Amino acid sequence: MVIEIAPPKFIEVEGRKIAIGGPKPDLREGEKLIRYTSSVCPECYRLLPAVIFERDGKVYIRKVCPEHGEYEELYWGDAELFKRALKFEAPGRGLENPHVKLTAPCPFSCGICNAHLDATALANLVVTNRCDLSCWYCFFYAEKAGYVYEPTLEQIEKMIDSLINERPAHGNAVQITGGEPTLRDDLIDIVKLLKRKGVTHIQLNTHGITFMRKPGLLRKLREAGVNTIYMSFDGVTPETNPKNHWEIPYILEEARRAGMTSIVLVPTVIKGINDHEVGDIIRFAALNIDVIRGVNFQPVSLTGQMPRKEREKYRITIPDVIKRIEEQTNGEIYREAWYPVPFTTAITEFIEALTGKPRLYMGNHPACGAATYVFPEFEGAGSERRVKRFVPITDFVDVDGFYEFLKEKAAELKKGKRKHLVLMSVIRNLGKYIYKDRQPEGVNFKALMIKIFLKRGDYSALGEFHYKSLFLGMMHFMDLYNYDVQRVMRCNIHYLSPDGRIIPFCTYNVMPDLYRDKIIKEYSKSFEEFEFIYGKGKVGDEVKYKRNIVELENTELYVKTYKPFFHRFRRLPRIVREQEVLVS
To answer: Is residue 392 part of a domain?
Structure first.
């Protein structure tokens, strides 16, 4: 008997022929179905059926490409935490005015199309692909790419217009990124342009080294309107953070001089490389809480072709990092303190029902990220100051109860109950969800929430809260092995493009030949053309940063910054070794 198999269907995307469809993966003995989704083949991008399932207490995704075989990948490292996250899943809303028409199945029609379920919460604005570092793992910087991408101010303005025209509600947060954005001579003009267009939150993604090399630049950026510095920081030791370890003390000192009190540390977490330092990263942030507002951990995205054994060696997921934090903070920041992003929809729905105005609705897939707030308490003073303990917000707020309460009150408003009666009921009952005697010193959570509700969702009151706490976030961007199309459709971290499209993070970067690299090359200039316009010395070896490690690590400032973590160092700086010899 001969079984005829129907030929696959194909679509063409940016000149690449991509097959659609494949066999539905089977569940095997000992596996429990969680849900079906779609994924892609890591070799050929073929759009495939995929299954997400539980096995041995973990969550996996499996797909089978007729040409390249089966791929199974760890999706979430703890099934129970995944089920808990799914309880907060929220329906998507999409855009009333999508930027492009749906011409191919997701993720091959990005821009945003009418199948997408979330507006832009954070817009990434790539302002350059130039960088003064040459990290081995980066294939993006100008010298490797072979061209320079730097959109003009006019192009940037058009990109921002695309963002603020999203309906029914749009985000007002833009991250200026690169490459290394601080290499642009007109960076301050870009910041002023964003402020003029009405962007209320501007964060700058940077390694921070330029602030040490150009004193005064950070102050000018702060005065121009930069709210937050989003800074690389992969660990507290030279081995885990070779990118900017030696410069960090001087960058933080420059932040203090500049009055920049909102730095977010951004560690990329890789199993076996720096996951043993996640607790100390939080302690480092706490000890510098005068300028550091939070830590946003990013479990590594495994790009390129990588055998399964190698993937298992480095793969780490959100719950894995959460559990390491729990272990490395002696259980103080425990796993139940974390909540997925769509938790926020309860507050959004209540404020919308109260005001009658649409708000940015963050209906992300629960697997995309998690967050919490912690309050550090200290002991000692000066160079002997240490973190005594961390108090997560869940120690003094019944977060689950508060979530259900707000959902209930939003439903009452939608049914027509008088607004002032519902609002008074919320204020009167807030105390039931707050354990007043457990609150950290100086924190009055009830008063904070009352301010927010009375001001109908004006979150300016959160400023006081933020300056007493550390925000801890977790964002796991996908790669071709753990790709889940349902997550892409709910993404709200997007990239702005000069062609008017707005593209989800996990298509822009995961399929660079279809999106990122193609777009950037199309709007790029050759080195010769760029230097003709902007002058010599802007690309190549002349722009590269060359550090003097001996000079940087043998200062009192360096010692003071890292002294609480010297027990992790393989080698102490010379100045410390010499002091120890003198003492002995």
So the answer is: yes
